[in-house]
Batch of 3 targets.
Target 1
Amino acid sequence: MPYEIEVYTTNPCPYCLAAKNLLQKRGLQWKEHLVFGGTPEWAAMMKRTSAKTVPQVFVNGQLIGGFPELAAFDKEGKLQKLNI
């Protein structure tokens, strides 16, 4: 896999589900970090992003952002380029 995608999510979360569905639609694989307030995963997400919302999506270590930013990244054709 020439790319690495990480997604910080929680349940239930419609935007998290939308982000994962978009990645799946593009045929991409990702590592999911399930976060809840106060957990080590939450602390790691906060350290990396300073954000208190999910999803938080990283591609090759670069923060893309939440679902709206991921959708914009996709509209620019950048997700499809990962799968080439």
Target 2
Amino acid sequence: MEDGAKPRDLEDRTFLFAESVRTSVKQLPRTVSNREGVRQVVRASGSVAANWIEADEALSKKDFLMRAKICRKEAKESRLFLRLIDVGLTKSNIARRDALAAEARELTLIFSAIISKSSGS
């Protein structure tokens, strides 16, 4: 994700997102307010990747749509917690956080488009 070229395969892209979140949070200040936010963003970002794998292997259209909706929900939650965590005052932490929040937003839009096209709406 660092080089600007994003994988077209959602399994790879969601994995890289979760991995980047984990790498990024290691650089954050260890504050009381970050403890829960970091825990939540790590869980939510991993859930995006895990649920996409589940959607890709769905047993039915209904199962696929449910998993895709969970992916969208978890991507939104990831963005929220990324915006809430205290990154400190370093420009690199701020830039990294903003890039991850932008990726979470893009993933939300991708999953929204998938849901819309799959449900026939």
Target 3
Amino acid sequence: MAYNAWFQCINGCPGEFDLREVIYRCPTCGDLLEVQHDVEALKSRSAAAWIQLFDDRYRRNTYPYGSGVWGKKEWVVPFIDNENIVSMYEGNSNLLWADRYGKQLHVEDLWIKQCGNSHTGSFKDLGMTVLVSVVRQMMAGGVPIDAVACASTGDTSAALGAYCAAAGIPSVVLLPKDKVSIAQLVQPLANGALVLSLDTDFDGCMAIVQEITKEKRIYLANSMNSLRIEGQKTVAIEIVQQFDWEVPDWIVIPGGNLGNVHALGQGFAMMQELGLVNKLPRIALAQAERANPLYRSFQEDFKTFEPVTAQPTLATAIQIGNPVSVKRAIRTLQRFNGVVEQATEQELADEAARADRTGMFNCPHTGVALAALRKLVERKVIRSSERVVVISTANGLKFADQKAAYHMGALEGIKPSHRNKPVELPADPKRVARAIARHVEKSRLLVS
């Protein structure tokens, strides 16, 4: 059976566009496009057969199907040639049972989807493998593309730099000056990208990248390009697969540009439509208080939406005041009976540190999601008996300087409730023994 997929307007305007066409917006209404699949063709294979196929490919070494994304190739870009796929075997990230932390929150069945355990350290790899692979297919077919470009707060640029380097395609990255961590800055530099550090914020970088990609020889890699969404939606499929094809009750997602909430929604909806699952989870979207336009809209039942000027936040990747995917995100939240919560800087910093004390090593964006989760549990929006999955979007090692500053008490405006400073001692065995004894006693008190 030949499967197919194409671009179509999110508002249902007439017209279908080839995924290999350089197009990002509907020519009729100017809104975003999304990828549609030939569902009737996909239904020719039973739900049980899809499950068997996906399970047979899971973590195998037959290229490219061991990838968490390309193991679901027929649901992503079914017609792409395998030799044009650029994969780092992204996805298949672990689903961490946060037992001890869950008990502290009074959530009996809490899991953290560690999307930061990926090639460049964030979930952005999942979408970038799809986008760069399609660009490679386009170029092989004679489409004249000189480079691929993105605006970024750090993680998108890292993924773009790595995948373009693997494909031998020039990449261009627009970053807001002094607003990304050193670890995030060095990744695209190391991979040979042209890194442009602009004196603006992410929204300013986004405006410029949209302008320069009007010339079709520079291909746009931000999430307004729905090829990215196709890769990211496999997180939803992967979570259900890791639960032996059972759907959790809640998914908690940190949100900035809001492509991820739509992406996961697409994954769950596709599984339901094709009969692999019989219910949808509820979705909680978490925003930083200093960049919270969707939270404000939710307070008014989404009757209106107003962009904001995002203020500096520790959660730099979601410091976005005018998200591109807002319309898609609102529709997803409405379909999934979703809620939106926010976290202050103090709350996100402390919650990340509190969870770290149970064995994690969280990025600040995951801290936003965990702080939002705590609030929702305290208000009994999320019940203690429900199965909850928090999407951890990036590896905490990208933010090691920020985490060190927290524990040294050097984060401006933050009183670190869970700080843990190094103890400086002379090289004296007795002094070391006494320090160990105090630590053991303190640990016992904390556990009790």
